[in-house]
Design brief:
295 residues; alpha+beta; Jelly Rolls; Arc Repressor Mutant, subunit A; 3 domains; six-stranded mixed beta sheet; 10 strands; 46% helix; globular
Amino acid sequence: MGTDIHSIRWTFDRAQRAHVSARDWSDDHARLICIGPRTPPFSVPASHVALWLSLRGSLCGDAAERSWCLGERDVLSWPESDVLVTPTRSTWALAACVPAVAVRAWMRGEPPLLLWQSRASVAVLRAWMRLARHVRDAADPALARSLLVALVREQQVELAPHLAACPGRTRDARIRTLTRLCRVRHAIQSRVDSVARLDGLAAEANYSAHHLVRLYRDVFGHTPSEYAASLRHARAWQLVADSPLSISDITAEVGFESPSAFCRAFKSHFGVTATEARRAGRGLGAHDRLVRARG
């Protein structure tokens, strides 16, 4: 018997007792999980799509094809596959995990849920809070469904101009193109500490390297290598200005060959040395640079 998509049961799992095992997942059950430092690792199966919001600290996940890590106030739409999430001692986050069959039905007539990681806007945060409060206090299936759809719309609103820029005679063709490019974009985000090889990214999208570079630039306004460089620079600035790590440790963290190569690249890009940036700290806008680079 098929799932009744209009009567999905919702559960609010609090951080202290959010122990979620494999038997807790079913096609008629959605979960709003409050993740904290004491939440044990848990897996979300491929039968469910997941929306993630990192409120404090970092939240990291491991899937068969890649690992990912969210910083504070990052959001991620994950329609991909099984993922194992391991909270850290500083993690505070929310996850909305919903049967994929229900999400597809609820979003009929709208762009599908795509793999997309970005900084949460104020509107996205408000949508998250509305859904979390409702599931915690009442969990009326119809209203929870409406709030979830509103959250998906808000979390992916910035995809609209990219979808419009995709080639294709039909909307479905443009969605297929954007789906591939979003996978490439997330692959770059997941490998900030290493150099993303163009041939590997092209294989991710099943395009030739030349076609990927041209299409990615047309849709996102920059090439994959330019986006990867912007993320590395932003990460480097954040670590120099806001962390106690040594320059040698930062060099390894962002994937440069040597501290001297890192320092030259840092001075060339930002116009100040790493020592000057560290001395000035947050006053030089590390946080704003990181946000802008993440797009």
